[in-house]
Design goal:
elongated, L-fuculose-1-phosphate Aldolase, 218 residues, alpha+beta, lyase, 6 strands, 43% helix, metal ion binding
């Protein structure tokens, strides 16, 4: 991908994530592969509202060197490892989105909950053990979890998420669906602990027939 186009795409995706409530201020980081050896990534310490495309940093995937005076995100090694994992990965998004971060803080894995999750994320979402951000241990655990699950997302314990995709739109959708299914997972676990049960499809159908006299269409 053309580097200028990639930088603009990263900046624009930051704004989309901000509006979707999946990132805040300068938290998280976004990258786009531009060729076999390089990717561009958000810089450290820049807010997404004020970030300019020319502040996005080009990084060498192999040795993590970068071009220019602006420093890339300190999570650049995590992004590089994701691109190393699979050649079809075109974009990587790391967030601290609320619902997913709650599940990550609980060190829980999210099973496949519905067909959209299966289609977009591709499998269950595993959670790593805790390790400090930016460390080789965290990188290794995150990549191993992605590899084992076969999915496009992993939870980083007490930290956040890593979402990958064949392109930026794919990675963005993974982050969106992940937030929704994590909310669903939290609600299900809360109901389980409370001893209450949500209504079954059969109970809903029986109620509908009793009140409206016709079979509900499902």
């Amino acid at each position: 991908m053309n580097i200028d186009k990639a930088k603009k795409l990263v900046r624009d995706t930051g704004i989309r994530l901000l509006k979707a409530g999946l990132i805040a201020r300068s938290w998280g980081n976004i990258s786009q592969r531009i060729d076999e050896d390089h990717f561009v990534i958000t810089p450290t310490g820049r807010t997404y509202e004020d970030l300019r495309p020319d502040e996005i940093v080009r990084v060498n995937r192999h040795d993590l060197t970068h071009v220019g005076r602006i420093k890339p995100s300190y999570e650049k090694g995590l992004h590089a490892a994701a691109y190393e994992l699979r050649s079809d990965i075109g974009a990587v998004i790391h967030t601290h989105q609320l619902q997913a971060s709650v599940v990550a803080a609980a060190h829980r894995e999210v099973p496949i909950l519905d067909t959209e999750m299966k289609k977009i994320i591709g499998g269950p979402v595993y959670c790593t053990s805790y390790s400090l951000p930016g460390t080789k241990k965290l990188i290794r655990m995150a990549i191993e979890a992605l590899d084992r699950s076969g999915s496009k997302a992993v939870l980083l314990a007490n930290h956040g998420t890593l979402c990958i995709g064949k392109d930026m739109e794919d990675a963005f959708n993974v982050a969106l669906v992940l937030e929704r299914v994590c909310k669903k997972f939290i609600e299900q676990e809360f109901l389980k602990i409370s001893g209450k049960r949500s209504a079954s499809r059969e109970a809903i159908r029986e109620w509908y027939v009793q009140n409206f006299g016709v079979e509900a269409k499902t």
